[in-house]
């Protein structure tokens, strides 16, 4: 018999249950990736992510070739393409990972029906893209946890499966053609400092992180200039690393840093179980707060300043410029730029989420939309009206101003005491900087938000 393993957000060979199952007891296996045109049409084909994806597909193909196999790439409607490959290979089963978005859930159902009509079974595997499957732990009264802390307790107690090694050999039947693999060279508009994709690079980073980085994570993860987080997010997004393996290896490393790191991986699973149960939360408010966000037309100038990193608040601008330059932003930066847009400027979180998805190499429907909702107060934050003050945040998380100076060269020479508040400089000094005045007074923004949200 022949099987097909359909790769989606799990572009790796290590710890891959669908691949393992597809290889078991078959005469041949077709490793397949479909560039789903529906995903592209929905606006997810951002250049930074396409570049990272191209790296991942080439690396996956190289890994398969080392084992005697190869990757088959198709483009089009995913269901049609899988059915075609099944016919060409005369396969009798298909293995894939479960996923949470509305599109993924609908697609899985369509695929199941289409394959069943041909007498082919679809096997959907959990714990490929999460450490704990959505729905594996639930509170007594609901189908998902809406608050993180009780979720974390149950998540941490849940028995996780052991990670699997990579297969030694993969035999692909003849006669199944592939489109050429994409490269980076045809893409334009890439961020200059974009990370490299692929499982090999992901594993190299993970090993280096567990050796050199994780121990200090608990103390240093919020240090903006220190850049002391793992930067594994694009690898988790594309699945070049397995969340199950990450949790195992971090727990084995032990210590407060590893514990804090594992907690972040639980956040990732938390958001996934929310979206699996409430797929509409990708676009609609998870909890409505009666917001009447400023109409885009009126707020247009502020939105443009925010996107370009010219709000006049150095820490906000530094983070927004890091996003453009690297296709990645530090978590503290994401929090405070999101708070600034949604609360201080009172602009619809969807406007900000869209901009992030246009640039982030780890841009992820679940993590992005639900973190935006969390910060906008329409999501799962139990203190939905908290507003982060960018000046206080800057003084706390960038005390020397190194992060600001790195990303906002206009402020490179401003003394430490004023680097986060350049408006306090004398008129002449300020004028010479070529750096904008604040788009809004913080107190004014806060008043507007309080009036709009009510108590
Ligand atoms: P580390 O601090 O090393 O954390 C390890 C891993 O834990 C991350 O790679 C990530 O997979 C997971 N993680 C950490 N924090 C969170 C969190 N708050 N929610 C869910 N998972 C988390 N993350 C994305 O992967 N894609 C996004 O599109 C995304 N958009 C965001 C938008 C906003 C407004 C905010 C506030 C956060 C967003 N995050 C997103 C979460 C977080 O900022 C990033 O995962 C993190 O900064 C990635 O850097 P790292 O890998 O060095 O993280």
UniProtKB/TrEMBL annotation:
It holds the Pfam family FAD_binding_7. Keywords: Chromophore, FAD, Flavoprotein. Its cofactor is FAD. Residues 166-198 are annotated as: Disordered. InterPro entries: Crypto/Photolyase_FAD-like_sf (IPR036134), Crypto/Photolyase_N_sf (IPR036155), Cryptochr/Photolyase_FAD-bd (IPR005101), Cryptochrome/DNA_photolyase_1 (IPR002081), DNA_photolyase_1_CS_C (IPR018394), DNA_photolyase_N (IPR006050), Rossmann-like_a/b/a_fold (IPR014729). PROSITE patterns: DNA_PHOTOLYASES_1_1, DNA_PHOTOLYASES_1_2, PHR_CRY_ALPHA_BETA. Residues 1-130 form the Photolyase/cryptochrome alpha/beta domain. Belongs to the DNA photolyase family. This is DNA photolyase family protein. It comes from Streptomyces nigra. The lineage of its organism: Bacteria, Bacillati, Actinomycetota, Actinomycetes, Kitasatosporales.
